[in-house]
Amino acid sequence: MKRFYKRKAVNQLWLTACSYATVLAVMVSLLLSASTAFCQMMINVNQVGYLPDEAKIAVIASQEPLDSATFHLLASDGKVDFTGTLSADLGEYLAFKHHYLANFHRFKDIGKYRVAVGLLESQTFEIGNSLYGGIPDSLMRFFKVQRCGSNDALLHAECHLYDVRKVVSKNGTSDAPLDLTGGWHDAGDYVKFSVTTAYSSYLLLLTAELFPKSKPQLEAEARIGLEWLLKMHPTPDRLITQVEGVADHKVGWRMPEADPLAKKRTAYEFPSQAQAGIVSAALAFGARAYREGDANELAGRFLRASEELYAFALSGRLSAAASPPDSHYFDAEARDDLALAAAELYATTQRVEYLDSAKAILSVIGAGGWVSWGDVEGFACYRAGQFWPASVEMLQASLQRYEQIADNNPYGYPASSFPWGSLALQTGVANLAVLYAKMTGDRQFDTLAIRQRDFLLGTNPYGVSLVSELGSVHVRHFHHQIAAIKRIPLPGGVAGGLVSRKTFTTSGIRLEAPDRFASIQSTTTVFHDDRMDFLTNEPTISGVAQAILLLAWCENAGMGH
Length: 561
Prior knowledge:
Elements: H1 24-32, E1 41-44, E2 49-50, E3 57-62, E4 70-75, E5 80-85, E6 98-103, E7 111-117, E8 120-121, E9 125-127, H2 135-146, E10 166-169, E11 172-174, E12 192-193, H3 194-210, H4 215-231, E13 242-243, H5 246-250, E14 266-269, H6 273-289, H7 296-313, H8 335-349, H9 352-365, H10 377-385, H11 390-406, H12 422-440, H13 446-456, H14 481-486, E15 499-500, H15 501-505, E16 525-526, H16 541-558
């Protein structure tokens, strides 16, 4: 279950009745069928839209070279408002042999439009300043759905209100009960992890710091994660790393309040330097964020726990990496986590030894690497960069590498393969570009960030918005028990992204319904809008937290901030 996630209404019929039409009845029919008709052409756009002054790029994918070198922007009345020249043929990529870019960055008129090439039209999108207003808040609803315990959850009742029955560690099993209630379910199931809870809490606090519009809401939600992390750290030399495991996946689909495991949940205690580091970082940030007002005492507890965990990580008693047999989040590199913890502890305490530690580590590892829960050196460079300019150059060098890779494919994808969780890589890279612009005022990587956002919202090889209820064609059947059982859209859901065909083939996943994307699946990648595909279609708290930061940047840019 898990990570171990009109020119006449041809309008994206893909010229072969294999995709989405503007005529609702036709669209519904197509989406419910498993058409295997050969798709000849697609025009993929950001289905939410573009801010007037930013890069605006549509991608045209075709099986045959295009005779026409022009494209048109059609207003809602069908009038041609702009004509542009397509890029040179960018060649074969995934399922299509030819790709072209339609760049209309110079067109800034506010309104609703479609991109047209010959007789084919894109989905409708907007150009405007307020398109992203409220979207980060709407994604925050996912965290409310994920709440565990008695935290006033959305769409389900209180759940998992009992102490864990036992704690499994490398030293054996303890039958002493432990209160680990609260926090968030990690994804479509009901397992909880220290590492992703810490990372997600950290990102919510970072979003609140960068874009204060939703600060109260963001900090209130982050507090749920941080207070649960205090429970996972019951003594100075302990860190519980996980609540429940593969047993959760064997029970079957059920609502969390009806979980038959509720009274016999197992916790796992396999701390590592990496895990202690990321939890320490989140708690150090929380200590600073909650210093004011009635949360001052809580902030003190966060700081004590952060310093204890940092010392625990450096004590020599922990390996760089450790994981229970059924963990889904194995992190083999600890230095990035320790650098982030040290940088955050310095920002909170001003103790120079913490900054010295962060500088020493970052001088060796730089800012590169996978950008998600497993590699946080870019975030460490951002925080250290407020006190140490050299880390700004590290972040710039990392972004330049991603930009070079992104320039080599038509969709601006910043990697050469599609691993499990590929969308998190994309939003992570975009977030680093946002942080770089915030640090320096230099906007050279804005387009890199924008293209990741556009991929998220429909400018991708499948022409589908990967966010629940955003865009005219979006993911509907997330691998998520609550939404599937209730047969409702998943609030704030963000899919896992494309994955290599080899990874999918070896996973043993069997789709529940005919594949709506069968005609455009490639030999190298797949994506499925099917509740059984936990590889491409499962939302996670860390993935949604990354998307929230990125879209908060878009929201504030539209407001002129």
